[in-house]
Amino acid sequence: MTRAAHDSIPEAALAWHLQGRGAALATVVETWGSAPRQTGSQLAISGTGEMVGSVSGGCVEGAVVTEALEALSDRKSRLLTFGVSDETAFAAGLACGGTIRILVEPVGEGVEALSEAMLTEIVAARAAPRPLALVTRPEGWFRQIVGPGADPAVDARLRSDRSGMEEDGRFIAVHNPPLRLIVVGAVHIAQSLLMIARTCGYACTLIDPRAAFGSAARFPGEAILDDWPDEAIATLAPDARTAVVTLTHDPKLDDPAIRQALRSGAFYLGCLGSKRTHAKRVERLTAEGFTAEDIARLNAPVGLDFGAKTPAEIAVSIMAQITQTLRQ
After folding, report:
1. What whole-number distance in Å separates Cα of residue 209 and Cα of residue 216?
2. Where are the beta strands (DSSP E) in 34-179?
3. Domains of the chain, residue spans
4. pTM for the complete prediction?
């Protein structure tokens, strides 16, 4: 499962370190007021000043790079605090003022550094993919990699997909597998939806057994499965980080996919079709033994109702509803 370049920050840091160029990681650990980047956002800096990622989007980056290069020299981690008044906030990327706290860690040797072994384990888990968290206690610079089921605080952070500072002084940096979007039906809406979803950080899979629809010419660069939808979804095994959308408008294709998705842990299931179409769908699902609670998981008609008309606008409405379900 590939990651977008903007999300390959630990990978970039490890590569620079292994190449002998030096690397440091900067991580937003706390924010107050307005901040353009959320807690857990990262910036990788090489020993020659190259950067991947962002911790503010403004001139804070310049100060962070300077501190990162010093950290590579003295092999000491540090916590930086940037407070910006409303008058000068825009220049620093804090649009309405605010304060951010950033952890800067050199990679490699040193009792205060983030070890090569730990960063290698993080990168391997992200490639697997499997969830884990890096727990750092700045007081004494104790670090530990923790997987699911070992620490209630880590489990809560993994479930919420939010890195953050705990009351006991530990910073928990979450490394979850990418969010996934499974789309059934290689129609025009899918073309826009997959593009938007990738921009939002989702790993996307398109399912359509109709070769004329699900072709590489119509969907260049997309992962396309031509299996029957229920079989494909069973293989993909949707989990709590997966959204499923059915777009064929054909019960022969949509219904098997919906039935399989309802049996999964997918956090979102959206189905294209009018209210009348959905009423008939509900009748079929009820007859097949699905409960009212099961059927209530369906978002149908799919997407937020803000008057979308074109395929691209409908795709925006779907992605907005997926995001609303995920975040709220």
Report:
1. 13
2. 42-46, 51-53, 78-84, 98-106, 132-137, 142-146, 164-165, 171-175
3. 5-175, 180-327
4. 0.74
